[in-house]
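Example (one chain per record):
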Amino acid sequence: IVEHVHRETGLDNLCMAGGVALNCVANGIIQREGPFKNLWLQPAAGDAGGSLGGALFVWHQLMGNPREPQVPDSQSGSFLGPKFSSDEIESYLKSAKAVYQKYGEDDMSAEIAKLLDAGKVVGLFQGRMEFGPRALGGRSIIGDPRNPEMQTKMNVKIKFRESFRPFAPSCLAERAGDYFDLDVESPYMLLVAPVKAQLRKPLTAEQQQMFGIEKLNLARSELPAITHVDYSARVQTVDSDRNPKYYRIIKAFEDLTGCGAVVNTSFNIRGEPIVCRPEEAYRCFMFTDMDALVLEDLICLKDDQPPMPGAEEYKKEFKLD
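Predicted structure:
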């Protein structure tokens, strides 16, 4: 279809929207093998994107305002949702009798990096909420991609879903080529790319004979938590312009460990929407085995928190592997 469109139009740029544009595997093939020079994917490409289309139609077509594309991103990283001030968050935490500590900008990033390196799972609630189905660092749960236990831990104890489900990497934009066969940016986590051959771990003859979840859970690269069974990953590239806070966290983790990527999954439990408000983030934090919660410039550690009624009963609702 893409090749047909290129033949008919002769254009160099392709923009895609609609639910089909959320097929990250197909998007990656189009990016690597397609005839177009540039590919742009609407980050809320499903039904939610209709609201954006309606607004743009009225603004440009009916009201006659000129279109003025901005480089690199007219959509502001898709951070178009609500934001909550530190004072609002602190007011809620006090009402919940939560225990927290406030950090300065540099100290915050360094502290999060230390938690990740120690194998902790961290919830991020910072800045404006993402528009679209992907968590991009505003409402994310993150971990250490080098940790062979991280995939199972985040699936079973945080997301309450099957242990083999893969997670996506968020990596520094300038380091993406070190980890993946990817030579373009992927800020909206809508491209699947192969993990670099030199990072892969081929399965032994004995491992090849394994079956089911036992085989699916085998480490397949030096970044096992984000490598899928076919040695691919759904990549998000992070730059300091679109998301400076998230970039600083990953950069601090790189400075500490040499690894310029983290595991990133959406801040929610299976079957529930991504958290939007501080109280939703704290409830998800308390109702799972998440280790730490970042709320703007505040950090809550699980071991410091008072018990929240209903947490243990809630976990029993989910059947795992």
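Caption: The chain has a mean pLDDT of 91.
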